[in-house]
Amino acid sequence: MSEQTATASAERINLLKVLGPVHVWALGVGIVLVGEYMGWNFSVGKGGAYGSLIACWFIGLLYTCVAMIDSEVTSTVAAAGGQYAQAKHIVGPLMAFNVGLYLVLAYTMLEAADALVAGDLLAIVADQFGHPDLDPKPFVVLTIAFLAWLNYRGVFMTLTVNFVITAIAFLALVIMFFWVQPWNPGAVLLHEKLLTDLPYGWIGVIASLQFGMWYYLGIEGTCQAAEEVRSAGRSIPLGTMSGMITLLIAATITWYMAAGLLPWEYLGQAGVPMYDAAQMTGSPFLMVLLFIGTIFSAIASANGCINDASRSWFSMGRDRYLPIWFAAVHPRYRTPYRSIVFLIPVAVAFGFTGLLDQVITFSILSGLLGYTFMSLNMMKFRKSWPLDSIKRGYVHPFHPLPALSLLILCAATYFATFLGYGASLLAIMVFYIVASLWFHFHRYKYVRRADQFTMPWPKPKGY
Amino acid sequence: MDFWDIFSYAAWIVSAGLLLWMLMDAIRINREYDEDLLISSREGADELLEADEKGGGS
Asked: Concatenated DSSP letters for A271-311?
């Protein structure tokens, strides 16, 4: 029996298992860190500096719950597609299709936004060197094309590069933190003068939750690497939890530096707040360092997004939720090459719209829908497969507290999003409802129903 | 034409080169390999192997 299985396995081309916890960290933190360099500061515009700090920690709690839940479920469902595969095994096909779609759109749009940022940064540099009105489009395309090529050629090199540039971007923030002498208040940081009461009261704090997601958006992407890591049960929890700790540190020092260098009225609408904060120190070294950090973080984020979006698309293809043609694995590089190539024009199209705000809002909302599912998923997972029924690489503590906290925090963030982007929220809901109808009435007939459930689990309790 | 104009053209050319390379490689792979082999990957292959080995009792 085992010989037959081994022979069959030898005739298959699977994704390559070459990654370790460091790559998982690089994937998760790499996607997110750009949010520390820009984007989080719009929460200051909604709720003031203290409002943003409250959002930073509350949303930090939301993502800690996400990381804990993800780590436990992924340590048992070690499959590309991450939350898509989890939803398929625990809830069912319709939920899985929706989650897969959230993932692909969230990551592809974030990738487009990152490429736009890289292009815009080069346009700013060109302007400073006397060439105004540089068209960012060629650099948007170059960023996407180069990173897609890297992803096409192999996951090990892709995430090793991500580790290096993410580490540099993180170190840039840490170096700046020590440069501004936090132990010597008033020398560089002027919190006493700049910090004010909540300008819009507690409703402003609630409104700031939406942009507080920027501090951590994308850390859940670590589990997309589940099929390519050696020892997923150990590497995914280790990489995800260490990534979350890194982000909590990065988010807090980012807020602390920016709030002590820039008035909240400016900070709340700044395009590149950390670069502006570096300018306020008057140090050319810090300005160059933070510029490099900003561009590296944008590239690392786009790189991780290509990796994650292609794995989700590939997994959906493999289960025939999409044409199985997308499930091809490159025989030499062992990557989902057709999915990678197919998503390039989609990302470029989003990038060419130039609508950074809308693209990011759609990305955030797709992420939020995914987190809401995770809390329900976790409760069903523990109920249907109690701890002693299947082997887990990691068991998160205090269940059901993290799942319930996640659900409540998601509800608060929906309300915050409704306050600022009510029309976008409704439009996105309509889009996913239409997509669900298409899947249920048209696409599902092509799915080989027994083939999609691959985990050798016992029947769920009460089945 | 200054440095930034040349830089922009270079970005277009390099992007086109990379995209073309991926496209040509994908076409070559599609021709050289059997489609069933290319789409043969299985989700959770490790877990399935482990389960089969246990179940087979070999």
From this structure: SSHHHHHHHHHT-HHHHHHHHHHHHHHHHHHHHHHHHHHHH
Please give the ipTM for the structure prediction: 0.85
pTM of the entire structure?
Answer: 0.91
**A88-132 confidence digits (pLDDT tens):** 888 889 999 999 998 998 899 899 989 988 998 899 889 988 888
The closest CB to that of B40, out of A11, A145, A455, belongs to A11
Rounded to whole angstroms, the Cα distance separating A461 from A29 reads: 36
* Ranges of each domain in chain A: 23-446
φ, ψ of residue A87 in degrees (nearest 5):
-65, -40
The reply to whether residue A12 touches residue B41, judged by beta carbons under 8 angstroms, is yes
B22/A152 touch (CB, cutoff 8 Å), yes or no:
yes
Using CB atoms, pick whichever of A81, A332, A341 lies closest to residue B22: A341
Minimum mean pLDDT among A38-42, A230-234, A407-411: which range?
A230-234
Amino acid in position A119: G
Q: Is A327 exposed, middle or buried (0-12, 13-18, 19+ CB in 10 A)?
A: buried
In CATH terms, A23-446 corresponds, of 1.20.1740.10, 3.50.50.60, 1.10.357.10, 3.30.70.1120, to 1.20.1740.10
A238: its two tokens? 């280790």
Asked if A214 reaches chain B (Cβ–Cβ under 8 Å), the answer is no
pLDDT in tens, A179-199: 999 999 999 999 999 999 999
Of B11, B45, B51, the CB nearest to A9: B45
